[in-house]
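ingest -> validate -> predict -> emit
validate: passed (alphabet ok, no gaps, 347 aa)
predict: started
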Amino acid sequence: MKVFYGVQATGNGHITRARAIAPKLKQAGAEVTYLFSGRPWEKLFEMDVFGDYQWRTGLTFETKAGHVRYIKTAFRNNLAAFVRDVKTLDLSQYDVVISDFEPVTAWAARLQGVKTVGIGHQYAFGYDIPKAKADFMGSLVLKYFAPVTVGLGVHWHHFHHPILPPIIETDIEPATVQPNKIVVYLPFEDVRQVVQLLKPFRHFQFHVYSSTMLDEHHPRPEHVHVKQLSRKGFQHDFAEAAGVICNSGFELTSEALHLGKKLLVKPLHGQMEQLSNALALEVLQLGQVMQSLDGPTVEAWLQQSRAARVAYPDVAQAVVDWLMQGDLRVDKSWVDGIWGQVHRIEA
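emit:
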Protein backbone atom coordinates (compact mmCIF):
# COMPACT_ATOMS: atom_id res chain seq x y z
CA MET A 1 0.00 0.00 0.00
CA LYS A 2 1.30 3.47 -0.95
CA VAL A 3 0.42 6.20 1.56
CA PHE A 4 0.82 9.96 1.36
CA TYR A 5 0.85 11.48 4.86
CA GLY A 6 0.70 15.26 5.40
CA VAL A 7 1.59 16.61 8.84
CA GLN A 8 1.08 20.14 10.18
CA ALA A 9 4.39 21.15 11.77
CA THR A 10 3.49 24.50 13.34
CA GLY A 11 3.68 22.89 16.78
CA ASN A 12 5.26 19.64 17.88
CA GLY A 13 1.98 17.83 18.67
CA HIS A 14 1.13 16.77 15.13
CA ILE A 15 4.69 15.55 14.56
CA THR A 16 4.59 13.61 17.84
CA ARG A 17 1.41 11.83 16.74
CA ALA A 18 2.98 11.00 13.36
CA ARG A 19 6.05 9.63 15.18
CA ALA A 20 3.80 7.17 17.01
CA ILE A 21 2.19 6.01 13.76
CA ALA A 22 5.21 6.00 11.40
CA PRO A 23 7.06 2.87 12.64
CA LYS A 24 3.81 0.89 12.72
CA LEU A 25 3.02 1.83 9.12
CA LYS A 26 6.51 0.69 8.13
CA GLN A 27 6.11 -2.57 10.05
CA ALA A 28 2.79 -3.17 8.28
CA GLY A 29 4.57 -2.93 4.92
CA ALA A 30 3.20 0.45 3.85
CA GLU A 31 5.31 2.65 1.57
CA VAL A 32 4.82 6.14 3.01
CA THR A 33 5.71 9.59 1.70
CA TYR A 34 5.55 12.28 4.39
CA LEU A 35 5.02 15.99 3.84
CA PHE A 36 5.49 18.64 6.54
CA SER A 37 4.42 22.27 6.39
CA GLY A 38 3.83 25.24 8.66
CA ARG A 39 7.39 25.53 10.03
CA PRO A 40 10.65 26.56 8.32
CA TRP A 41 12.49 23.50 7.03
CA GLU A 42 15.64 24.35 9.02
CA LYS A 43 13.66 24.34 12.29
CA LEU A 44 12.53 20.73 11.93
CA PHE A 45 14.65 18.45 14.09
CA GLU A 46 15.18 14.73 14.76
CA MET A 47 13.11 13.64 11.74
CA ASP A 48 14.92 10.39 10.86
CA VAL A 49 11.82 8.23 11.42
CA PHE A 50 10.16 9.94 8.42
CA GLY A 51 12.88 9.11 5.92
CA ASP A 52 13.20 11.30 2.81
CA TYR A 53 10.23 13.55 3.61
CA GLN A 54 8.85 16.46 1.58
CA TRP A 55 8.41 20.02 2.83
CA ARG A 56 6.18 22.92 1.84
CA THR A 57 5.74 26.38 3.33
CA GLY A 58 2.05 25.73 4.04
CA LEU A 59 0.08 27.98 6.39
CA THR A 60 0.79 29.00 9.96
CA PHE A 61 -0.47 31.45 12.60
CA GLU A 62 1.14 34.63 13.90
CA THR A 63 1.11 34.81 17.70
CA LYS A 64 2.30 37.29 20.32
CA ALA A 65 2.24 36.97 24.11
CA GLY A 66 -0.13 34.02 24.04
CA HIS A 67 -2.64 35.39 21.54
CA VAL A 68 -3.33 34.53 17.89
CA ARG A 69 -3.09 37.65 15.68
CA TYR A 70 -5.34 37.00 12.70
CA ILE A 71 -4.55 40.17 10.74
CA LYS A 72 -0.78 39.56 10.99
CA THR A 73 -1.42 35.92 10.11
CA ALA A 74 -3.14 36.99 6.88
CA PHE A 75 -0.17 39.15 5.87
CA ARG A 76 2.47 36.62 6.93
CA ASN A 77 1.21 33.72 4.85
CA ASN A 78 2.03 33.60 1.14
CA LEU A 79 -1.33 32.51 -0.26
CA ALA A 80 -0.08 32.50 -3.86
CA ALA A 81 2.66 30.01 -2.94
CA PHE A 82 0.13 27.93 -1.00
CA VAL A 83 -2.22 27.72 -4.01
CA ARG A 84 0.70 26.78 -6.26
CA ASP A 85 1.78 24.02 -3.86
CA VAL A 86 -1.76 22.66 -3.70
CA LYS A 87 -2.13 22.59 -7.48
CA THR A 88 1.25 20.94 -8.12
CA LEU A 89 1.03 18.16 -5.51
CA ASP A 90 0.19 15.00 -7.45
CA LEU A 91 -1.54 12.35 -5.32
CA SER A 92 -2.67 10.06 -8.13
CA GLN A 93 -0.16 7.26 -7.40
CA TYR A 94 -1.22 6.75 -3.76
CA ASP A 95 -3.72 4.26 -2.32
CA VAL A 96 -4.41 6.26 0.85
CA VAL A 97 -3.96 9.96 1.60
CA ILE A 98 -3.75 11.10 5.23
CA SER A 99 -3.77 14.62 6.62
CA ASP A 100 -2.99 15.47 10.22
CA PHE A 101 -4.46 18.96 9.83
CA GLU A 102 -1.98 19.65 7.02
CA PRO A 103 -3.62 22.00 4.50
CA VAL A 104 -1.52 21.45 1.34
CA THR A 105 -2.25 17.71 1.35
CA ALA A 106 -5.91 18.13 2.33
CA TRP A 107 -6.71 20.73 -0.33
CA ALA A 108 -4.72 18.95 -3.06
CA ALA A 109 -6.72 15.79 -2.34
CA ARG A 110 -10.00 17.70 -2.43
CA LEU A 111 -9.18 19.31 -5.78
CA GLN A 112 -8.17 15.92 -7.23
CA GLY A 113 -11.23 14.15 -5.86
CA VAL A 114 -9.12 11.82 -3.71
CA LYS A 115 -10.63 10.31 -0.57
CA THR A 116 -8.66 11.59 2.41
CA VAL A 117 -8.41 10.39 6.01
CA GLY A 118 -7.93 13.06 8.65
CA ILE A 119 -6.11 11.86 11.76
CA GLY A 120 -5.92 14.37 14.57
CA HIS A 121 -7.52 16.20 17.42
CA GLN A 122 -9.07 18.92 15.27
CA TYR A 123 -11.32 16.37 13.55
CA ALA A 124 -13.08 15.67 16.87
CA PHE A 125 -14.58 19.16 16.64
CA GLY A 126 -16.96 17.95 13.96
CA TYR A 127 -18.96 16.40 16.82
CA ASP A 128 -20.79 17.82 19.84
CA ILE A 129 -17.91 18.03 22.31
CA PRO A 130 -17.08 20.69 24.94
CA LYS A 131 -16.30 23.85 23.01
CA ALA A 132 -15.35 27.30 24.14
CA LYS A 133 -17.53 30.11 22.90
CA ALA A 134 -17.16 29.82 19.15
CA ASP A 135 -15.64 32.78 17.33
CA PHE A 136 -16.13 33.23 13.62
CA MET A 137 -12.47 32.88 12.63
CA GLY A 138 -11.85 29.90 14.93
CA SER A 139 -14.83 28.03 13.50
CA LEU A 140 -13.71 28.72 9.93
CA VAL A 141 -10.18 27.46 10.68
CA LEU A 142 -11.40 24.18 12.16
CA LYS A 143 -13.78 23.58 9.25
CA TYR A 144 -11.76 24.68 6.24
CA PHE A 145 -8.06 24.70 7.17
CA ALA A 146 -7.53 21.03 6.25
CA PRO A 147 -10.83 19.44 5.12
CA VAL A 148 -10.97 15.65 4.73
CA THR A 149 -13.40 12.94 3.63
CA VAL A 150 -13.17 10.73 6.73
CA GLY A 151 -12.12 12.25 10.04
CA LEU A 152 -10.57 10.15 12.82
CA GLY A 153 -10.87 12.62 15.66
CA VAL A 154 -9.03 11.95 18.92
CA HIS A 155 -9.85 13.31 22.38
CA TRP A 156 -9.61 12.56 26.10
CA HIS A 157 -13.20 11.29 26.09
CA HIS A 158 -15.54 10.05 23.38
CA PHE A 159 -18.51 12.19 24.50
CA HIS A 160 -20.78 9.49 23.00
CA HIS A 161 -19.41 9.98 19.48
CA PRO A 162 -17.06 7.91 17.25
CA ILE A 163 -13.97 9.69 18.59
CA LEU A 164 -10.79 7.77 19.44
CA PRO A 165 -8.52 8.10 22.49
CA PRO A 166 -5.22 9.98 22.08
CA ILE A 167 -2.57 8.56 19.75
CA ILE A 168 0.67 8.62 21.74
CA GLU A 169 3.81 6.54 22.12
CA THR A 170 2.66 4.17 24.87
CA ASP A 171 5.98 2.33 25.33
CA ILE A 172 7.70 5.21 27.15
CA GLU A 173 10.28 3.90 29.63
CA PRO A 174 9.27 4.65 33.25
CA ALA A 175 11.64 6.84 35.26
CA THR A 176 12.02 7.82 38.90
CA VAL A 177 9.88 10.92 39.39
CA GLN A 178 11.44 13.91 41.16
CA PRO A 179 8.65 15.57 43.20
CA ASN A 180 9.99 19.11 42.74
CA LYS A 181 10.83 18.86 39.04
CA ILE A 182 8.47 20.67 36.66
CA VAL A 183 8.67 20.77 32.86
CA VAL A 184 7.47 23.98 31.23
CA TYR A 185 6.60 24.28 27.53
CA LEU A 186 4.85 27.54 26.63
CA PRO A 187 6.02 28.20 23.04
CA PHE A 188 3.56 31.02 22.39
CA GLU A 189 4.62 33.04 25.45
CA ASP A 190 7.57 35.41 25.91
CA VAL A 191 10.23 33.29 27.63
CA ARG A 192 11.28 36.30 29.74
CA GLN A 193 7.77 36.56 31.15
CA VAL A 194 7.73 32.82 31.83
CA VAL A 195 11.00 33.09 33.80
CA GLN A 196 9.59 35.99 35.82
CA LEU A 197 6.47 33.94 36.55
CA LEU A 198 8.54 31.07 37.97
CA LYS A 199 11.13 33.17 39.81
CA PRO A 200 9.42 33.21 43.25
CA PHE A 201 9.09 29.41 43.54
CA ARG A 202 12.62 28.51 44.60
CA HIS A 203 11.74 25.14 46.12
CA PHE A 204 11.06 23.75 42.63
CA GLN A 205 13.29 23.09 39.64
CA PHE A 206 11.72 24.32 36.39
CA HIS A 207 12.97 23.04 33.03
CA VAL A 208 11.71 25.52 30.45
CA TYR A 209 11.94 24.45 26.81
CA SER A 210 11.96 27.35 24.35
CA SER A 211 13.02 28.20 20.82
CA THR A 212 14.30 31.53 22.23
CA MET A 213 17.22 31.66 24.65
CA LEU A 214 17.82 34.37 27.24
CA ASP A 215 20.77 36.67 26.58
CA GLU A 216 23.20 38.12 29.14
CA HIS A 217 20.87 41.08 29.71
CA HIS A 218 18.18 38.75 31.05
CA PRO A 219 19.78 36.52 33.71
CA ARG A 220 17.74 33.62 35.02
CA PRO A 221 17.40 32.43 38.62
CA GLU A 222 19.28 29.22 39.46
CA HIS A 223 16.13 27.11 39.80
CA VAL A 224 14.85 27.99 36.30
CA HIS A 225 16.67 26.15 33.49
CA VAL A 226 15.97 27.48 29.99
CA LYS A 227 16.76 24.86 27.34
CA GLN A 228 16.77 24.64 23.55
CA LEU A 229 14.14 22.41 21.96
CA SER A 230 15.42 18.83 21.89
CA ARG A 231 13.31 15.71 21.64
CA LYS A 232 15.78 13.57 23.60
CA GLY A 233 16.37 16.18 26.30
CA PHE A 234 12.69 16.95 26.65
CA GLN A 235 11.75 13.27 26.96
CA HIS A 236 14.34 12.80 29.71
CA ASP A 237 13.11 15.77 31.76
CA PHE A 238 9.47 14.96 31.05
CA ALA A 239 9.86 11.38 32.33
CA GLU A 240 11.35 12.60 35.63
CA ALA A 241 8.95 15.52 36.16
CA ALA A 242 6.09 15.46 38.64
CA GLY A 243 4.16 18.10 36.72
CA VAL A 244 3.84 19.94 33.43
CA ILE A 245 2.97 23.57 32.72
CA CYS A 246 2.06 24.01 29.06
CA ASN A 247 -0.35 25.48 26.57
CA SER A 248 -3.56 23.51 26.11
CA GLY A 249 -2.48 21.76 22.95
CA PHE A 250 -3.47 18.11 22.72
CA GLU A 251 -0.46 15.80 22.41
CA LEU A 252 1.72 16.92 25.32
CA THR A 253 -1.26 17.04 27.66
CA SER A 254 -2.23 13.52 26.54
CA GLU A 255 1.27 12.21 27.27
CA ALA A 256 1.19 13.89 30.68
CA LEU A 257 -2.14 12.23 31.48
CA HIS A 258 -0.86 8.84 30.32
CA LEU A 259 2.14 9.06 32.68
CA GLY A 260 0.22 10.63 35.58
CA LYS A 261 1.84 14.07 35.55
CA LYS A 262 -0.18 16.84 37.14
CA LEU A 263 -1.21 19.46 34.59
CA LEU A 264 -1.49 23.23 34.53
CA VAL A 265 -2.42 24.62 31.11
CA LYS A 266 -2.59 28.13 29.71
CA PRO A 267 -4.63 28.26 26.46
CA LEU A 268 -3.52 30.24 23.44
CA HIS A 269 -6.16 32.95 23.28
CA GLY A 270 -7.80 33.47 19.94
CA GLN A 271 -7.47 29.77 19.12
CA MET A 272 -10.77 27.98 19.61
CA GLU A 273 -9.15 24.54 19.82
CA GLN A 274 -6.92 25.41 22.77
CA LEU A 275 -9.67 27.26 24.61
CA SER A 276 -11.95 24.25 24.13
CA ASN A 277 -9.21 21.88 25.31
CA ALA A 278 -8.85 23.90 28.50
CA LEU A 279 -12.61 23.67 29.02
CA ALA A 280 -12.58 19.90 28.43
CA LEU A 281 -9.77 19.38 30.95
CA GLU A 282 -11.83 21.19 33.55
CA VAL A 283 -15.06 19.34 32.67
CA LEU A 284 -13.28 15.97 32.84
CA GLN A 285 -11.34 17.02 35.99
CA LEU A 286 -8.03 16.10 34.41
CA GLY A 287 -6.06 19.30 34.98
CA GLN A 288 -6.08 22.95 36.06
CA VAL A 289 -6.30 26.01 33.84
CA MET A 290 -4.90 29.54 34.05
CA GLN A 291 -6.10 32.10 31.54
CA SER A 292 -2.99 34.26 31.95
CA LEU A 293 0.52 33.88 33.37
CA ASP A 294 -0.75 34.09 36.93
CA GLY A 295 1.58 33.61 39.91
CA PRO A 296 -1.07 32.77 42.55
CA THR A 297 -2.54 30.07 40.29
CA VAL A 298 0.91 28.55 39.76
CA GLU A 299 1.59 28.62 43.50
CA ALA A 300 -1.69 26.88 44.35
CA TRP A 301 -1.09 24.25 41.66
CA LEU A 302 2.45 23.54 42.82
CA GLN A 303 1.23 22.77 46.32
CA GLN A 304 -1.37 20.21 45.26
CA SER A 305 -0.23 16.59 45.33
CA ARG A 306 -2.90 14.80 43.31
CA ALA A 307 -2.78 14.11 39.59
CA ALA A 308 -5.07 12.19 37.27
CA ARG A 309 -3.58 9.30 35.35
CA VAL A 310 -5.29 7.88 32.27
CA ALA A 311 -3.65 4.77 30.80
CA TYR A 312 -4.23 4.74 27.04
CA PRO A 313 -3.86 1.64 24.81
CA ASP A 314 -1.84 1.46 21.59
CA VAL A 315 -4.27 3.50 19.48
CA ALA A 316 -1.62 4.01 16.79
CA GLN A 317 -1.56 0.27 16.08
CA ALA A 318 -5.36 0.13 15.95
CA VAL A 319 -5.42 3.00 13.43
CA VAL A 320 -2.74 1.40 11.24
CA ASP A 321 -4.62 -1.93 11.23
CA TRP A 322 -7.78 -0.02 10.23
CA LEU A 323 -5.96 1.82 7.44
CA MET A 324 -4.37 -1.33 6.05
CA GLN A 325 -7.66 -3.23 5.76
CA GLY A 326 -8.74 -0.54 3.28
CA ASP A 327 -12.43 -0.19 4.09
CA LEU A 328 -12.07 3.21 5.85
CA ARG A 329 -15.45 3.06 7.54
CA VAL A 330 -15.56 4.08 11.20
CA ASP A 331 -17.45 1.27 12.93
CA LYS A 332 -18.92 2.00 16.38
CA SER A 333 -17.94 -1.39 17.78
CA TRP A 334 -14.32 -0.78 16.73
CA VAL A 335 -14.25 2.57 18.52
CA ASP A 336 -16.00 1.14 21.62
CA GLY A 337 -13.49 -1.71 21.78
CA ILE A 338 -10.58 0.74 21.91
CA TRP A 339 -12.21 2.83 24.64
CA GLY A 340 -12.77 -0.35 26.62
CA GLN A 341 -8.99 -0.55 27.06
CA VAL A 342 -8.70 2.96 28.60
CA HIS A 343 -8.27 3.07 32.39
CA ARG A 344 -8.37 6.14 34.65
CA ILE A 345 -6.34 5.88 37.84
CA GLU A 346 -6.29 8.58 40.51
CA ALA A 347 -2.64 9.13 41.42
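The two ends are 42 Å apart (CA to CA).
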